[in-house]
Write a structure and sequence with these properties.
The protein is an alpha/beta fold and about 600 residues long. It is about 45% helix and about 15% strand. Strand 12, helix 20 and strand 13 form a beta-alpha-beta unit.
């Protein structure tokens, strides 16, 4: 296990102990151990374990040292498994409901016998929760709202989670000898923020071996359907997936159809009809004659010179309808067909265009890897630069940096660059809280020491729209603000964003030459892609920032690039497609 995986286990042990009502000092020991572990570099942890010196680290005693060593070497911990078995699974599920911590959950169990979300819902509806000391009507309403959101969100999954499941499946399908082509379609291929289910499409004639391979994948929890040309499964995560197998000459049409979106497909079918053609998942054929689209396609295949046989890829399919190729991310029925007809589609930004990224955290605040580890990870990605922006002092919950700690970090970054230990240059920044009245969290003298500043809202989300908008605009107008972080504060499938007039924020950013980030965290993807096209046309600059809190999080820029592409952004619209020299000039300005 890696140090961060071990820290996750220690944190969960702390939660389980708190649910059981154990000694607070014992609970805190595991939480402290997790933080201490995150502050150690991976290589140093291995060395300490091998030298049996782990207990010399502050916050890690004998007992914790033994458990960490066991997890690091075996990937398992008997103590953890036994402890988990003593706590009702429903209690851990309740921790996911906003506003319900272990103490409140324990009170619900002890006083009302609640051990599941279903029982909690019933108790709230009967007013029993509001009657408990320390709860009240508002808390009860908040719990019910959290349960309702959890149920609604539970039907969808983050793009990143779906992509991690789909990628090895597509690779595995392509290796099968019976498979000619294989792709993932649907909202995953279009790069939507969340995915309802997965659609896998295969070109091939030998169906049975492909269906058998798919339905027997290790992650499959349930096979919900299995037929001659289609199979459906549900994975452990709850994500459902459909596999469709079509003849090779139908593949391009099926791929276009099942990629969607519905609006895009409707407009494409209408365009085909205006040209005397019928477009469907089975083919592109003359529209005359009776019968279904499938029957027409089959009839066309029986004739020489059929349209379908002349089309072997999506570029040719679009060309047959007088269009340039439309990237999957743009297929939302939002003007992409008109632009493709006029040859006005942009050359969208690509992952390979990035030279680095800003807005990343270290163990100095609430990150899980050290400055050196984050820099090494950026170097491994081939990045020329990395921006470090730990939390500011008002973010107490995130171990925000005091002025003294921030200036110390700046000095460490300068020293690291001077040492030439890494090829990647590190920019010294901060994610500075926008205070409720719009002021920034540090005075100008401190901010002047930084290379850049990401201004973000982290608290008082309940301000009305006008107040929140004025608050953010005041921060944008500060001369030290380089970019605005996660515009609405939304957490996908967890929390709606606060109310803000996005148009006015964009106007202010353009007027003050402030960048607005595309926060690439799979949980955020904020500013929403739907705002970017018009904003970029007016000159707004984007920075695709991973908001990484650990080394693996740097790779979340992939999700941000998806969203940027959906917003019609080009390389020229994105700050961190500039090379190091150009970025230095931009930040100096």
């Amino acid at each position: 296990m890696t140090k961060n995986e071990i820290a996750d286990v220690l944190d969960e042990i702390g939660t389980l102990l708190e649910l059981k009502g154990e000694n607070p000092f014992k609970i805190r020991a595991y939480q402290t151990g997790a933080r201490a572990l995150e502050a150690i570099e991976e290589a140093e942890l291995t060395r300490l374990i091998q030298a049996e010196e782990l207990k010399t680290v502050k916050g890690i005693g004998d007992a914790l040292s033994q458990k960490i060593t066991e997890l690091h070497t075996t990937g398992k911990l008997e103590f953890y498994q036994k402890l988990k078995a003593t706590v009702e699974p429903g209690l851990l599920e309740m921790v996911e409901i906003p506003g319900l911590g272990p103490k409140k959950i324990r009170a619900l169990r002890d006083k009302l016998g609640i051990t599941s979300i279903a029982a909690l819902t019933q108790a709230c509806n009967e007013g029993k929760v509001a009657a408990l000391d320390g709860f009240g009507e508002k808390t009860q309403e908040k719990i019910l709202a959290g349960i309702k959101n959890r149920e609604a969100y539970g039907r969808r999954h983050l793009w990143w989670d779906a992509w991690e499941i789909a990628t090895p499946i597509v690779a595995g399908l392509r290796k099968l000898p019976q498979v000619k082509q294989a792709e993932a379609a649907g909202s995953l291929r279009r790069g939507m923020e969340t995915v309802g289910d997965l659609d896998f499409l295969v070109a091939g004639n030998e169906v049975a071996p492909v269906v058998a391979w798919f339905t027997q994948l290790p992650a499959v929890k349930e096979v919900t359907a299995s037929g001659e040309t289609k199979a459906s499964v549900r994975f452990e995560s709850g994500l459902q997936a459909d596999l469709r197998i079509v003849p090779e000459d139908q593949f391009v049409f099926a791929l276009h159809h099942f990629t969607g979106s519905k609006d895009h497909n409707v407009q494409m079918r209408s365009r085909a009809q205006s040209r005397g053609l019928s477009l469907s998942e089975w083919g592109l054929v003359p529209a005359e004659g009776e019968g279904t689209a499938k029957e027409k396609a089959e009839a066309a295949r029986a004739k020489k010179g059929k349209v379908a046989n002349k089309i072997t890829n999506e570029t040719e399919l679009f060309k047959a309808l007088g269009l340039y190729f439309i990237p999957p991310e743009l297929r939302e029925g939002l003007g992409e067909i008109e632009a493709a007809e006029q040859g006005e589609l942009p050359r969208l930004v690509e992952l390979k265009d990035l030279h680095g990224a800003f807005h990343n955290h270290t163990t100095a605040s609430d990150g899980r890897n050290t400055l050196a580890e984050m820099t090494a990870a950026a170097e491994a990605l081939g990045w020329e630069y990395l921006g470090i922006a730990d939390h500011s002092k008002s973010s107490y919950q995130a171990n925000g940096l005091s002025e003294e700690r921030l200036l110390k970090q700046v000095a460490e970054i300068r020293a690291l660059n001077a040492s030439r230990r890494f090829k990647t240059h590190v920019f010294a920044g901060v994610e500075c809280d926008i205070l409720p009245d719009g002021r920034l969290d540090y005075d100008d003298a401190v901010l002047a020491k930084l290379d850049y500043l990401v201004a973000s809202v982290h608290n008082v989300f309940t301000q009305d729209e006008a107040t929140m908008t004025a608050r953010i605009i005041r921060a944008i107008e500060h001369p030290r603000t380089t970019m605005l972080g996660h515009l609405t504060g939304r957490l996908l499938l967890r929390r709606e964003g606060y109310r803000v007039e996005v148009g006015k924020i964009i106007d202010a950013a353009i007027a003050n030459h402030v960048v607005i980030e595309m926060n690439a965290s799979p949980w955020r993807l904020d500013m929403d892609w739907r705002h970017w096209r018009k904003a970029a046309e007016r000159g707004l600059v984007c920075s695709v920032n991973p908001d990484a809190h650990e080394t693996a999080g740097l790779q979340h820029v992939r999700a941000g690039i998806n969203a940027a592409r959906k917003g019609w952004l080009t390389k020229e619209n994105v700050l961190n497609t500039l090379d190091l020299a150009a970025v230095k000039k931009r930040l100096a300005r």
